[in-house]
Amino acid sequence: MASGQKIRVLTGHSEWVSSVSFSPGGKQLASSSYDGTVKLWGIHSDKELATLISVGENDWAVTTPNGYFDCSEGTKDYVHFVRGTEVIELDQFFETFYHPGLLATVMSGGELPDIDAGEQLNNSPPPTVEIISPVVGEKMQQREIEIQVKVCNKGGGIDEVKLLHNKKRIPDTSNERQDGDCLIKTYTVSLGVGDNTFVASAFSAERVESRGHKLDVHFSGAVREAVSHVLAIGIDEYKNPQLKLNYARTDAESFVEVIRAKSSRLFTDVNVTTLYDTEATRENILTTLDQIAAKANPEDVFTLYYAGHGSIVDNRYYFVTTENIKLYDRAKLDRDATFVNDMQQKLTAIPAKKVLVIMDACHSGAAADLLAVRGAAEEKALAQLARNVGVHVLASSGSEQYASEFAQLGHGVFTYVLLKGLQGEADMLKDGQVTVKELGLYIENETPKIAKQYKGQEQYPTTRHDGQDFPLVLE
Question: Is the pLDDT of residue 373 over 50?
Answer without folding.
Answer: no
